[in-house]
Amino acid sequence: MPAPIKKVVLAYSGGLDTSIILKWLQTEYQAEVITFTADLGQGEELSPARDKALLLGIKPENIFIEDVREEFVRDYVFPMFRANTVYEGQYLLGTSIARPLIAKKQIEIARKVGADAVCHGATGKGNDQVRFELGYYALEPDIHVIAPWREWDFKSREKLIEFAEQHQIPISKDKRGEAPFSVDANLLHSSSEGKVLEDPAVEAPEFVHMRTISPEDAPDKPTVFTMDFEGGDPVAIDGAKLSPAALLTRLNELGHDNGVGRLDLVENRFVGMKSRGVYETPGGTILLAAHRGIESITLDRGSMHTKDELMPRYAELIYNGFWFAPEREMLQAAIDFTQKLVTGRVTVKLYKGNVTIIGRESPYSLYDQDLVTFEEGKVAYDHRDAAGFIKLNALRLRVAAKRDRRNP
Question: Looking at the domain assignment, is residue 234 inside a domain?
Fold first, then answer.
């Protein structure tokens, strides 16, 4: 018989679902609940989460609310973008990359308060349950994990609302029926899934989008600005130095105003099913293009192509929840090694949903105009040398062609 749970740290948003989970933990486990609410730049006021936790009987000293925006961008978003990370060719992993940070903070609080369990509000069908729990176990291997959606007997949203009403949990009016879609948001992106978005053949309604204006409604005049990089990370916009979170916030504003960063995607979840989501990553979409722009003149071909080969594996690790796994850290070390001289400035043009890099410069540039010019350059390049290069590369093709002629 396992020991009873005495203290549990709950990842708490203040919304209906996690408020029900909070009360369920108190009634089902008779446990002392500690709440953790992360400010990841989701754009919501977090004081209501504190107020609701107090209303549900949580002691003030057991309510943890932390602004983790700078840590999120500096230690999670930027390292991911050094790899130009894209899952299945399109998705910039805005939800995936936030989960390991939340898990890490929960474990830190659990250690601080002496909790013997942690709890999340992810459902049993999605990826987030995997991401949270792999993070928990990687950091605290003997922690007890409570996943209410896999344990409780509520079979419908109506039953959840009945439970909320029985326990005087405040329910906003729009929560009394089925929500039109579910939303997850942080400083990097917003994602919308479910309900009106479940049929992949039907275009998403315009009201789903919350981080960008429609490209059709974007200004008829392009927006042009510069972005500076140091060691693979962006550090300034139009010459003004900004902190990681402030820089991403500014990119989000620029992307929003120009309709940049919309994505309608059907993806393969780690648990085995396909899901359709509408994602908006305005700042991240700009950052990806700009980073590839500065790499184009500072990385040699071997490094760039090897990075591109490693990237899908790296993206899959993050998507599947293996941020704290040794193989992700190994790939990160290799990626970071390539970024030492990825320093310089790119000029970016935004226009009606499009991101174009129109200028690149770096003190470490490998671009040699004397080599590539069609005019007579200062650097010696003998065109005749190309003949031997081509013949050596063609040797195996010629041998195979002769064999095939002999054996039609």
Answer: yes
Predicted pLDDT of residue 1: 46
The percent of residues above 90 in pLDDT, for the chain, comes to 84
341 with 204, same domain? yes
Q: Is the pLDDT score of 377 beyond 60?
A: no
Report residue 150 as tokens: 């896999």
- The string of pLDDT tens digits covering residues 305-332 is 999 999 999 999 999 999 999 999 999 9
Is 367 contained in some domain?
no
**Which residues have C-beta within 8 Å of that of residue 319, sequence separation ≥ 6?**
87, 91, 93, 96, 127, 270
Q: What is the pLDDT of residues 109-162, one digit of tens each?
A: 999 999 999 999 998 888 999 999 999 999 999 999 999 999 998 877 788 888
Question: Which residue range is the domain that position 46 belongs to?
Answer: 7-76+95-178
Report the C-alpha gap between 19 and 171 in whole angstroms: 10
Residues 383 and 293 in one domain: no
Domain boundary (146, 178, 210) is at 178
Q: Where are the beta strands (DSSP E) in 48-172?
A: 63-67, 117-119, 144-146
Which pLDDT score, from 0 to 100, does residue 379 have? 61
**Does 173 share its domain with 194?**
no
The set of long-range contacts for 88-93, using a CB threshold of 8 Å and a minimum separation of 24, is 88/265, 88/267, 88/268, 90/263, 90/265, 91/263, 91/265, 91/267, 91/279, 91/319, 92/188, 92/189, 92/263, 92/279, 92/281, 92/284, 92/285, 92/288, 93/315, 93/318, 93/319
**Would 366 be classed as within a structural domain?**
no
What is the tally of structural domains in the chain? 3
Does any domain span residue 89?
Answer: no
What does the pLDDT read at residue 155?
76
Same domain as 400, residue 351? no
Q: What is the pTM of this model?
A: 0.94
Q: For residues 175 and 362, is the Cβ–Cβ distance under 8 A? A: no
- CB-based contacts of 122, cutoff 8 Å, min separation 6: 128, 129, 131, 132, 147, 149
- Axis crossing angle, helix 157-166 with helix 16-24, rounded to the nearest 10: 60
Residues 159 and 228 in one domain: no
Say whether both 99 and 140 belong to one domain. yes
Please identify every residue annotated as catalytic: 17, 99, 128, 182
